[in-house]
């Protein structure tokens, strides 16, 4: 019996998360969402909302956390393609752009709240960006043998570029999104070559 109740509670919780995502758009940011409207779309009474989240801010922070986790998981999978002879830059950029296309509401939320009015939201988004950057930095150190300092600089540049391009891709059609993808791949390859040249220049000659 307890297991059935727990499953139903999780189902309702997921319904609230999905309802909030459904209502996000370029015109309606998270701050404009109404608890009553979210509860109505999820099919529950507004008073039942508080059985799952303390307030709308907690629901929003959950969206940020889940969006960041989903993106990191997808990028981990894309990095595995390098073992199959694929291009790590192409695989990562393509995966990122697919995430933006398939999770427009979540990515728009990340962008909007990155500089929004809520300190809690800003900190949550900053943490997700930091996780994203740190994983890339670790990959550059562990797999490509860069120094920590050079990996940090390279990872930071890459993340800034892809998030900026992701913002441009939100309202782009397929043709423009493909152009942005190819342009970003070229830009990141230039950064990678620059990092490699910097590493080579730092190696003392005999």
TrEMBL record:
Endpoints of the signal sequence: none
Gene3D superfamilies: Homeodomain-like (1.10.10.60), Tetracycline Repressor, domain 2 (1.10.357.10)
Keyword flag Transcription regulation: yes
Source superkingdom: Bacteria
Boundaries of every HTH tetR-type domain copy: 11-71
Annotated DNA-binding residue span(s): 34-53
GO terms, molecular function: DNA binding
Keywords of the record: DNA-binding, Transcription, Transcription regulation
Database matches in NCBIfam families: PRK11202.1 (NF008402)
Protein name as annotated: TetR family transcriptional regulator
Organism field: Pseudidiomarina maritima
């Amino acid at each position: 019996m307890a297991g059935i109740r727990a499953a139903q509670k999780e189902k309702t919780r997921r319904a609230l998360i999905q309802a909030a995502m459904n209502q996000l758009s370029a015109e309606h940011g998270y701050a404009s969402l109404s608890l009553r409207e979210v509860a109505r779309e999820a099919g529950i009474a507004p008073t039942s909302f508080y059985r799952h989240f303390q307030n709308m801010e907690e629901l929003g922070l959950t969206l940020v956390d889940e969006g960041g986790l989903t993106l990191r998981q997808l990028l981990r999978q894309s990095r595995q393609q390098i073992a199959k002879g694929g291009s790590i830059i192409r695989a990562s950029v393509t995966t990122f752009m697919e995430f933006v296309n398939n999770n427009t509401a979540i990515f728009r939320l990340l962008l909007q709240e990155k500089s929004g009015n809520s300190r809690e939201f800003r900190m949550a988004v900053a943490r997700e960006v930091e996780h994203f950057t740190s994983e890339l930095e670790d990959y550059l150190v562990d797999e490509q043998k860069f120094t920590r300092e050079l990996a940090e600089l390279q990872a930071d540049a890459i993340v800034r570029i892809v998030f900026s391009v992701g913002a441009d891709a939100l309202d782009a059609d397929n043709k423009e999104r493909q152009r942005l993808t190819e342009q970003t791949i070229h830009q990141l390859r230039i950064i990678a070559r620059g990092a490699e040249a910097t590493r080579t220049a730092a190696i003392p000659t005999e």
